[in-house]
Write a structure and sequence with these properties.
By secondary structure, the protein is an alpha/beta fold. It is built from three helices and eight strands. Pfam families: Glyoxalase (PF00903).
């Protein structure tokens, strides 16, 4: 059975405003649009795929998006809620990454050291949590 599971294809993220979100992921994380499916009537949503280094995000903008529950906006509280949590990226320079985020006005949600590793959570322009880890 496990021989049939292959590589990761993408992570899906629902957003409030597609154009703002595409620009946010381009400017702050270096993702570029690789496919714009436009409006998908069966879903009542716009769909755009973005990619960086072979990894894709699938962004959905629904006609009537539901607001993120407040307990999903804080990393430690969100981790207690059953379900998929966040996407995590590696960095080799947390200080430079943080400085760039501050310069761009990115919402830094949480910073912590886990042993020798530096960990930082940010929120995208929709409030979605994203994690960054610098391992020693």
């Amino acid at each position: 059975m496990t021989d049939n599971v292959k590589n990761v294809l993408h992570t899906g993220i629902s957003v409030y405003h597609m154009e703002e979100s595409v620009e946010w992921y381009r400017k702050n994380l270096g993702f570029e649009v690789v496919k714009d499916d436009g409006y998908c009537p069966p879903l009542s949503a716009k769909i755009v795929f973005m990619e960086k280094d072979g990894y894709q995000l699938e962004l959905f903008e629904y006609d009537e998006p539901k607001e993120i529950p407040k307990d999903r906006l804080t990393p430690n509280t969100d981790l207690q809620t059953v379900g998929t949590k966040h996407v995590a990226f590696a960095t080799d320079d947390m200080d430079a990454l943080k400085a760039g985020f501050i310069e761009n006005g990115v919402d830094i949600a949480h910073e912590v050291r886990m042993g020798e590793d530096a960990v930082m959570f940010i929120r995208d322009c929709n409030g979605v949590l994203i994690e960054f880890i610098q391992q020693k």
